[in-house]
Design goal:
With 294 residues, the chain is mostly beta strands. The protein has a single domain, classed as Tachylectin-2, Chain A. The chain is 0% helix and 46% strand. The strands form five sheets. Strands 1, 19, 20, 21 and 22 form a five-stranded antiparallel beta sheet that branches. A five-stranded mixed beta sheet has the order 6-10-9-8-7, with no helix packed on it. Strand 11 and strand 12 form a beta hairpin.
Length: 294
């Protein structure tokens, strides 16, 4: 069982994404919340910042404001996030820009940049060795003809305002050999020290077992063939508190330790009276693979 999981002392937050910048930790999460931690400790105080995310026009973003990820790119800070577009009637992904990791973030993509005739969520940024930016995102199961979720990838323009290539499907929720539900969720790209390209993503073993997988590109390219693992990286059974978790990403703390960040549990646990909270689990690279650091 995994011991010593660090839980961020916030009331509730889903889809936590951590950026280490200017001797501070910034954490972004659904509902477009931004937290700042200057204590130097991941279990220190996380202060909720009163910063805005500005949509153009604001009425286009309705209710759902999911999974913001913030990256430093070409001297500025870019947020990829999901909202329900009243213009299209579907969930979609959009990009925002700020001069500060604290915001405010202003939309630069002229509405959602993912396909406008179906539901797409959880966009993540990847910049390849040639400096070409890509977006990986979820084609949701709810609008797929067979109700099976997919992962898709496309090139972005240098300004991160739009896709400049046709999206390519790279795998499906049923690609792994072990039983899972039809959901693709929470993608994040990671390059190992040996140069392999890995992708964290989430699905469900059962409705109460949200989990994290790690896929591998067979040629180190984001649009290559993705090989699925034989088992998840994290499951409910691994937690000493019997909590599931998912929507993972990886960050390095100020001391050089790598962590898996995710929210756990996935839904409110009545027996524990516990909401979803950001948790951080130590990881390490072993034989060119990500392993939990027990």
């Amino acid at each position: 069982m995994i011991k010593n999981i660090i839980t961020a002392n916030v009331e509730r937050l889903r889809d936590p994404f951590v950026l280490v910048e200017d001797d501070a930790y910034y954490m972004y999460g659904s509902e477009w919340k931004v937290y700042k931690n200057t204590s130097g400790r991941l279990d220190g105080e996380w202060k909720l910042l009163d910063k805005k995310v500005v949509v153009n026009p604001p009425s286009f973003a309705h209710e759902i404001r999911w999974a913001p990820e913030v990256y430093k790119y070409n001297g500025a800070y870019y947020m990829f996030t999901t909202y329900l577009s009243l213009e299209t009637g579907f969930r979609g992904c959009s990009s925002f820009k700020s001069d500060s990791p604290e915001g405010p973030f202003v939309e630069i993509s002229n509405g959602i940049f993912t396909p406008r005739d179906k539901s797409s969520i959880d966009a993540t940024l990847y910049v390849d060795e040639d400096g070409q930016p890509w977006v990986v995102y979820v084609d949701e199961h709810c609008t797929a003809p067979d109700k099976i979720g997919r992962m898709a990838v496309a090139k972005m323009d240098k300004e991160l305002t739009k896709m400049i290539s046709e999206p390519k499907e790279i795998f499906r929720a049923d690609s792994p050999s072990f039983p899972l539900l039809n959901v693709t969720d929470g993608c994040y790209l990671y390059r190992t020290k040996k140069g392999s390209l890995l992708m964290l993503w989430s699905n469900y073993q059962t409705p109460s077992k949200y989990c994290v997988m790690v896929a591998r590109s067979d040629n180190g390219k984001v649009d290559g063939n993705w090989i699925q693992p034989n088992e998840p990286l994290f499951t409910r059974e691994m937690s000493d508190e019997d909590l599931d978790g998912g929507h993972g990403m990886i960050f390095t703390d100020r001391d050089g330790q790598k962590y898996l960040s995710m929210h756990s549990p996935n839904f409110y646990r009545r027996d524990m009276k516990r909401w979803e909270k950001p948790v951080f689990v130590k990881i390490k690279e072993v034989d060119d693979e990500i392993k939990l650091d027990w």
